[in-house]
Amino acid sequence: MISCHPPENGRSIARVALFLILTICVSATADSEPADHDMALLEKYRPIIHIAPGGTAPVDFYGDYLPLSVLRDERKDGAILIEHPKRNDLVRFDGLNGVYLDYAGPPDLKGSPVAYGRVYQELTPILIKGEEVMVPFIFLKYNFAFPVSGLPAGLPWYKQWLASIAGDPVAWRELDIHGSIIVALTTLDGKGLAPVALVLGQHNHYRTYLLGRSVPAINGSGPEISFALRSNEPYPLPSGKERVCVRTVANPSGFSFVITGGGLSIFSGYDHIYGPSTGAKRIDDYTIEQLPPSDPLYTARISLGDRRRLFGMIPTYYRDGPPGMDLNSWPGLLEYGAIMRFWFVDEGDRKSAALFDRHIKGFSDANLPPVLKYNSRRFSEEFLKLFSLPKIPRDR
Fold first, then answer.
1. Which three-class secondary structure state does DSSP give residue 344?
2. Which of 169, 171, 298, 304 is the Cys-Cys partner for 148 at CB 3.0 to 4.6 Å?
């Protein structure tokens, strides 16, 4: 169980600062073995996953994706350094300027699905009668690997047209590993340890759902998840007879669009989410694997996919393969308890949308405290309507 970590969302943000934090965290835990009770929790609440009709299924990064890749050097016009690289090659070349992994296999690779699982424990403040009370939480985190990632399936015609010229909307970039599924547990009064929230990493942001409020409660099993068509982002499984279209945006500067639908952003679109009645396919035969904290799938600073360019000419972060799963958030938002509260927003909450517009200008320009303060208060209010915490003893 890990208690020191940078979180995983989106792509590389302030990578140097995060690497310094990551180095400290990994040095303290690199030799530790995952505990049996961690795996027991990960298995108990393993997500029930579905993919869209015609969608790509997750694969095994080391067993399926890596053997079909090569290591290239951008400084030498993409010359191949190593064919069929191994795990130790990613470690050996990590941090070298211009080195990146390039996947040469099919976009619809048929492999063996793996969920990369980790367990984190944290103390998270909950506002109770005007006072912040530190509450122990356990966060069960699952990441799946997809060989390619596409743009949202629901784009206006002009964005779809432009994307088709600039690249491939279906395989916009190589490797998708940052769409995370996180189950938050805490001890409830009279019930013991229980799941209370679901946090999903989607398109460089997260969404937080309180169980029994915006998504169904889960009892003795995991959350039901549907990966969006083309983009592979995780969403709560729809139960209706029609596909669901969900607003999304690739840059957090436009997150108010997700909340209210207002504003204009070149990065906005709609993810198409499918349920059992609309053709979603359930994937049951995946395994859960716990990697060491120092594993390059988590820590790599090189791109783990091709560095594709817009129109074949213009370099852009949006088409680069991702770095490791640990290198993905603002330095000021490093704990899952904070992420859970920061990204707790209600549909149509104009105050929260206004705070995002005012304070979140992009990946490198974000004033987090005002947004965190408001959304944390809202999280505490709604959390306490649903759940009762044990009485906290006070000193006399």
1. coil
2. 171
The answer to whether 278 and 243 have CB atoms below 8 angstroms apart is yes
Low-confidence ranges of the chain (pLDDT < 70): 1-34, 392-396
Q: Which tokens is 166 given?
A: 């600039």
Give the DSSP letter of residue 155: -
Q: What per-residue confidence (pLDDT) applies to 396?
A: 37
pLDDT of residue 320: 92
Q: At residue 244, what is the residue type?
A: V
Least Cα distance to 333 among 218, 221, 206, 215 occurs for 206
Torsion (CA) 321, 229, 245, 10 in degrees, nearest 10 = -20
- pTM value > 0.70: yes
Query: How far from 207 is each of 219, 231, 328, 346, 360, CA to CA, in Å?
Result: 21, 16, 15, 10, 16
**Count of Cβ atoms closer than 10 Å to residue 315 Cβ:** 11
Sheet strands (E) in 172-280: 173-176, 180-188, 192-202, 205-210, 224-227, 234-236, 244-249, 268-273
How does strand 234-236 pair with strand 224-227? antiparallel
Alpha-carbon torsion (155, 157, 158, 161), positive or negative: positive
Which residues, including other chains, have CB under 8 Å from residue 219's CB and lie 6 or more apart?
none
Inter-residue contact 341 to 197 (CB < 8 Å): no
**What CA dihedral angle connects 384, 388, 389 and 390, to 10 degrees?**
150
Q: Which residues contact 240 (CB under 8 A, 6 or more apart)?
A: 275, 277, 278
